[in-house]
Amino acid sequence: MNRPESKPLASDDCGCPIPEKNGSHEKTINLALQGGGAHGAFTWGVMDRLIEDGRLRIDGLCGTSAGAMNAVVYAYGNMVGGADGARQALYDFWKTISDTARIMSPMQQAPWEAWSGTWNMDTSFSFNMFELMTRAFSPYQFNPMNINPLRDILDKAVDFQVLNRCQETRLFISTTRVRSGKVRIFTTDEITLDVVMASACLPQLFQAVKINGDHYWDGGYMGNPAIFPLFYHTDTRDVVIIHINPMDREELPTDASDITDRLNEITFNASLLKELRAIAFITKLIEEGWLKDEYKGRLKHMLMHSIRADRILCDLKVSSKFNSDWGFLTDLFNRGRATAETWLSENYESIGKRSTVDLKHEFFDIGTDHVG
What is the pLDDT of residues 140-178, one digit of tens each? Predict the structure, then answer.
């Protein structure tokens, strides 16, 4: 199996893959996968390393946009081929995206960008022309046939009728209902090709996806991803969030493109931050004994973990989310694997015992003159 710089799986005499357990018992986690275009290949790398490790079983998966695609491809691959099948399915999915984009995508890096070693496309003529077009025209005008090659790629990667019967992994895909502006979560037995495409439907680029008489846009506006279904519909306490939109930026953005990029990151982190604030409050109630005895059993004490991309992706701008070059995707994949390797070595023993992220200190700035 040819994966970018991934460790080959051992095999038995029949050539069947032997999952690695590293001499330890298996623990169960839920994964929460953010969306972010091509940066979803970072999540692919993280998942590949977690699967390869062999000590973790994924119970529930919530995802948005690229996170939703990683989620359904993983679940289907794992359902039909086990851990090795999941890794291969993710590899094939991302490789097909790159191969297709090389031929069909109007957005390509400028030669000097490739020569300079950057993966951003801010000075690319094709990217800038496309960005100007999407500001002047809606997708109903510049793409009246609603052509989206990604739809065909995903349709070939996942048999959704089979996926609907999946018992191994519980799926929760976030979308934004256009009419009401509310988040709509689709569960395993409801998930179709249209649902996943709706979860990744940026309204400046694609026509709204119609499902059962309602229209939907990208789930990142209201849940990137929505974590609450993992509390209510799984028995697992540990939630590992895989971030691909940096929370923190050290430098102040001062030019127009940098300001737009930072606003994009803030927008697509906003819904997640609201949920994390609520989780922090509930955790405080439980840990500090604020609940009456009759209410203590009604709230689940969640253990939160976070695989952050702030430093590892800080060199990338929003334009790189449209870059599907295989060199870039494999670079992101390797960054994800390395990040997951470090996270496992530092946090594996805490899974099932304690949270490894301090929500209040890592995600909120609450001064002494504020209430919260």
Answer: 998 899 989 999 999 999 999 999 999 999 999 999 999
pTM over 0.90: no
Q: Which two tokens stand for residue 70?
A: 């990683």
Identify the three-state secondary structure at position 232. helix
- Concerning whether 65 is annotated as a catalytic residue, the answer is yes
Beta strands in the chain (DSSP E): 10-11, 17-18, 27-33, 56-63, 170-177, 183-187, 209-211, 214-218, 238-242, 303-307
**Torsions phi, psi of 174, nearest 5?**
-90, 135
Active-site annotation holds for 24: no
All domains of the chain, ordered by start, with CATH? 27-106+118-271+301-360 (3.40.1090)
**Residue tagged 């289907």 (tokens):** 76
**Among residues 6, 48, 65, 261, which one is catalytic?**
65
Whether the CB-CB separation of 181 and 222 falls below 8 Å is answered with yes
Nearest-angstrom CA–CA distance, 282 and 280 = 6
